[in-house]
């Protein structure tokens, strides 16, 4: 009797043995889906191994092999195994996210449909670019690395237009080697320029893969990628798992964007997954940004990544910027800003106001064609948050707003209680290096990322006293296992309790953490404890 080692899309950190009946022996292969019974329910399972013997005396049989050919490649199996170990989820949960929803549900096919690419809303006309005469500065370094087929990571630091020129050249080079390309963007709705440029230039060899497609469209695009009809994939974070054959290049544009971090299980960061996948498949990674993630920039200047610095400032003249010190004017809307808003609207010009964390954007005078004024009600809303990334997020947001004012040739007024804080002054002067120098010194002194990793351990619920008691007990267990200096908390925030673990080696720490949490949950029956590795916040 042969046995299949199967994982399930469930929070169960275990590989299960199922017997392969004789009539399915030829069909059962690693990388295929199967129907199995688990806890009296018909469930989709994924074959990750085949063995001759099982240590179990009583073993259920596979009910049916779903796929005629493996749908999960060996490199992707290796990637999701690492993902499950690093981002603290089950192998089955990690594996399931690599597939479109229809395949997770056990579908073999959707309704008959052409495999031609869906009409893109981004393309207006075919673009013909002559890329040969003058390749952008720095392209030669990437092309050389591509020819050597050695996994390397480049940080392309510069304006969007300059980055796109680099991308187009290196994609041409990768395609000439008959290799595939994945291009990640943080949010499809916010990236029409880059998507339109790629689709108009490369045409039907491009597939789009993101959540704005219907389940059927996602399945259709996945099939085109799997068959090799699409050699370039553009999408959001889940596109990093696209089943491209002979992967040669992954581009992560706007690599600093928070959207690359998944906030539900498995809580992976697509930028880091891209780098790991490239290492497995001997591909090149290009990270692109005009406001690089501090961690990426640190790795670039310390030699772990290769830095390509392009043009970082726009051609537009710096906007007229006025800082309002709210320590002197204690109004939610200062008289000066209120007067400027009225003057701007009287001139029939639009006003854009950023409120609350800078994320709520209100527009006054929407019908007016030109923007005359941009106002930031409070530059401190993020800066004062209990988060080690607060300064970086403040600098990133204000830098984006400064560029918006530049492009619109609009006046910019920023209200703040911290007018001399380096994240604000560096953003206004468009001086990333000044921000980096001061922020990295602060992180080094406090032993914060990128010098260590944080792991958040989270328990949610409405019974505050019970949660506090449970998390206090858990923090004691963790201190016994890892040492007092490694554990921070517990702390309460919005009906959730957090313990933060500081570590230099995530994989090694997670091995011990799994044992501690398994024992804790055996003694205390609680909802699933959430583990968030490299979180976007820490209290």
Structural features:
alpha/beta; about 550 residues; 17 helices; about 35% helix
Ranges with pLDDT <50 over ≥5 residues? 112-116, 122-126, 129-133
Rg, Å, rounded: 26 Å
Q: What's the overall geometry? A: globular
The major beta sheet can be summarized as: 7 strands, parallel
Looking across the biggest beta sheet, what order are the strands in? 8-9-7-10-11-6-12
Give an overview of the whole structure.
- There is one protein chain.
- The protein has 539 residues and is an alpha/beta fold.
- It has 17 helices and 21 strands.
- The protein has helices spanning 74-86, 91-96, 101-104, 139-148, 160-176, 192-202, 215-227, 270-281, 294-301, 335-346, 356-359, 380-383, 390-408, 422-428, 432-446, 464-482, 506-523, and strands at 2-8, 16-20, 33-38, 41-51, 64-65, 152-157, 180-184, 206-209, 232-235, 247-253, 284-289, 306-309, 321-325, 350-355, 360-364, 371-376, 411-416, 453-460, 487-493, 496-503, 530-533.
- Strands 8-9-7-10-11-6-12 form a seven-stranded parallel β-sheet, with helices on both faces. The chain has a five-stranded antiparallel β-sheet with strand order 2-1-4-3-5.
- It is globular.
- Mean pLDDT is 89; it is low at 112-116, 122-126 and 129-133.
